[in-house]
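FORM 12-B: Structure-to-Sequence Request
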């Protein structure tokens, strides 16, 4: 039985009831003015919020409604992975234009898919009218010791999970009217690396960030947080087949983890456990003129995605 309170009459609440019915036991405690989440004693609450807006963060012609809502929630959950926090719930606020209302079931199913992947539940949210579809996800997580971006030291090794370049390659191919083939799944259904992050935290990583804006751009965020530099060897960066190195270095929406560690990590154990590569690609250095120095490749601009770029 779904743990939700009684809702009043009206079209808005009818839509909410429809989603709750769709979510089943994935929804808990919905019906009050705010969510209540009990935490294990001694844990820290970790919260983050992320918004996906039609025309800015996704194009409806490239993705199904179910994929759109899945990606929106998965992107927010990836922020918890970057902190090595286990999810304890999500809140989802949807701006739903009239032209999207026939897709409400598919949108609800995509949200359910994302919380299933992260082994968490939907704790509430908001539903409103508007001119463009927008999905804002607030994620709540718990961890005894958050990792964060600050903590790297000179000489720490730099590691990345997974292989890079597929999402950006898929976007380029879709923009050109081509079928992205093997790259589409990584673009349409990114996996927040939550269990992987918990494993890494248990092995003593010193800092972490998820790669949402591009490898070099997010490496720059780690460098800035620590007042240090990062040197990357492009020849070591793992990438999908036929992906150009500049795409692997600068492409966004990867949602893999970039971490630093003071000692060698057991990459064989990691891959055996998660069926995912963990690759050492660089080292933390003293501060330099450029926060991130890339060797082994001749590439152009590597600034990554900027929400306010012209």
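FORM 12-B RESPONSE
SEQUENCE OUT:
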């Amino acid at each position: 039985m779904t743990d939700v309170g009684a809702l009043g009459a009206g079209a808005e609440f009818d839509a909410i009831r429809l989603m709750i019915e769709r979510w089943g036991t994935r929804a808990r405690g919905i019906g009050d003015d705010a969510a209540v989440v009990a935490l294990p004693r001694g844990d820290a609450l970790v919260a983050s919020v992320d918004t996906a807006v039609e025309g800015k963060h996704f194009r409806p012609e490239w993705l199904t409604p179910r994929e759109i809502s899945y990606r929106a929630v998965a992107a927010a959950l990836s922020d918890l992975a970057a902190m090595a926090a286990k999810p304890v719930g999500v809140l989802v606020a949807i701006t739903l234009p009239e032209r999207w209302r026939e897709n409400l079931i598919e949108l609800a199913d995509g949200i359910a898919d994302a919380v299933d992947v992260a082994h968490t539940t939907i704790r509430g949210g908001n539903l409103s009218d508007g001119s463009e579809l927008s999905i804002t996800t607030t994620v709540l997580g718990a961890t005894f010791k958050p990792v964060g971006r600050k903590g790297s030291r000179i000489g720490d090794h730099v590691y990345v999970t997974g292989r890079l370049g597929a999402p950006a390659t898929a976007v380029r191919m879709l923009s050109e009217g081509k079928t992205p083939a093997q790259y589409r799944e990584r673009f349409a259904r990114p996996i927040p690396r939550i269990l992987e992050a918990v494993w890494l935290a248990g092995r003593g990583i010193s800092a972490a960030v998820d790669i949402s804006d591009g490898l070099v751009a997010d490496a720059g965020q780690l460098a800035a947080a620590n007042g240090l530099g990062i040197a990357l060897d492009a020849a070591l960066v793992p990438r999908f087949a036929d992906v150009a190195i500049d795409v692997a270095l600068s492409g966004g929406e990867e949602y893999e983890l970039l971490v630093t560690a003071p000692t060698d990590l057991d990459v064989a154990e990691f891959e055996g456990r998660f069926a995912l590569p963990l690759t050492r690609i660089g080292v933390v250095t003293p501060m330099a003129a450029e926060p991130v120095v890339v060797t082994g490749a001749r590439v152009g601009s590597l600034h990554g995605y900027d929400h306010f770029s012209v």
